[in-house]
Design brief:
The chain has two domains: 102 residues, Beta Barrel (Cyclophilin); 54 residues, no CATH class. Helices cover 18% and strands 9% of the residues. It contains two helices and four strands, in the order E-E-E-E-H-H. It starts with a strand and ends with a helix. PPIases accelerate the folding of proteins. It catalyzes the cis-trans isomerization of proline imidic peptide bonds in oligopeptides. One of its GO terms (molecular function) is cyclosporin A binding. Keywords: Isomerase, Rotamase. InterPro entries: Cyclophilin-like_dom_sf, Cyclophilin-type_PPIase_dom.
Length: 159
């Protein structure tokens, strides 16, 4: 699991809500049955504020205690990478992690999660984030594999 949203201290000890210091719990039938569930972190009943978490495994111990507000549908591998960063004795990552340039997608708007590092590799970092049906588009997948191989070969030749 990863947790963030302490916009006051950046230590996981505080937060803020547009409704005041806290806002009340709201429960629904959604359970923490899979990875990628986004929920509100809290310090007990009715103590929700800006802190949130994203699960990387099922977390039934959070059911009926924490509000689920969404689910990661693309880029879950990035969340898993964040969870794998080495932490100190207080469970804080030793490397800085920040969410930047975030916003809201409109229905039908492209996700644009392809690599944009100026190289010829323009495919998403993780195959499961590529919006392509592997059965119906086998040719596109083979083309992508060949393009990545060609790009890798050109990098090795430059060394």
């Amino acid at each position: 699991m990863v947790q963030g949203g302490d916009i006051i201290n950046g230590t996981g000890t505080s937060g803020e809500s547009i409704f005041g210091e806290y806002f009340e719990d709201e429960y629904c039938d959604i359970k923490h049955t899979e990875e990628g569930m986004v929920g509100m972190a809290n310090n007990g009943p009715n103590t929700n504020h800006s802190q949130f978490y994203i699960t990387t495994v099922p977390c039934s111990h959070l059911d009926d205690r924490n509000i689920i507000v969404g689910q990661v549908v693309k880029g879950l591998n990035i969340v898993v990478e964040m969870a794998d960063i080495i932490r100190d004795e207080n469970d804080r990552p030793l490397e800085a992690i920040s969410i930047e340039d975030c916003g809201e997608f409109e229905t039908g708007e492209p996700w644009n999660i392809e690599e944009r590092d100026g190289t010829e590799d323009v495919y998403p970092p993780w195959p499961n984030d590529w919006d392509i049906d592997s059965v119906e588009n086998l040719g596109a997948i083979i083309n992508a594999i060949n393009a990545i191989k060609k790009f890798r070969k050109s990098l090795l030749q430059k060394k």
